[in-house]
Every structure is written in structure tokens, then in C-alpha cells.
Request: fold
Amino acid sequence: AEVDADLALRYLRASDALLVSLSDHPALASFVPSKLFDCCAVGRPVVLAAAGEPRRLADASSAVLGVPPGDPVALAAGIRALSADPDFAGELVGAGRQFGAANLRDRYVATLEHLLIELARPLHGSGGSSAHGASFVCGRQLTNNTNSSGEPLER
Reply:
């Protein structure tokens, strides 16, 4: 069942810290879960148990306390470190808010929308198709008998 967004936010804000975890499976190495940005924006220290791209992004911004995924001893040590050092937790909150705000989903949606519109336009002129019905994809003209590389289609 879907949880009301206001209620979810109340629970997140009532927490002492938030955990974002992601398996270290190689297929997920470049996947950045949106909950990372959402949790950072809430204003609570975030512990990130992930590797790959999410860890690289978060470490570069100093927005989270990173621990290796699947390591409960490191996770417990990280939580104890946050509890013992309120100044450090406060630094994470400040950096996390900036990191979360800079990576809001709405901003990425708008950027992706703009990029897709630009890619749908032909190299010259405007619009997504020519007078004779050809379409443009990523700046390449598609006709009824060629693919996006301009090679003849097999029939």
C-alpha cells in the first residue's frame, strides 16, 4: 500500500539517522537510487551502505557516512560514530541537504526532457520530421528503408 508522502516525511524527520543500502552486486554498480537524494534532503544524517556510483557521488560531496555494503560490523560502527559525534552528524546534515537539493528528481526530469527534445530535432531546422515523412533520431534521419546508422533494412 502507498504511504502518504507527508506521513513518510514525518517518520523520516523523527529518525536520528537514515540508512540507504544497496547490494554490491556488479549489475548495480552504476545505479544511483533516488532515495539517496531524498534521504539527504530530509535533514538527517545519512549512512550509505553501497558501493559504485552512489558511493562515489556521495563521498565526493561529503554528504553521507559511507560503510561497505553487507558489513554489519561496519554499519554498527558507523552508527556509533554518528551518535558519539553530534558535530560530525551536523556536518553530514548540511552537506546532505546541499547534495539532495542539487540532485532533485524534478531537476533531472527537466534536464532529461530538454535533452530528449533536442535529440528529437533534425540537425537543420526544427520539428521532428521532414515533409516526406522521414523521422529523426539522435540527429540521424530514418527513412522507411534505412536504420539509424543509414544501413539498408533487411526485409
Summary: Confidence is low (pLDDT under 50) at residues 127-147.
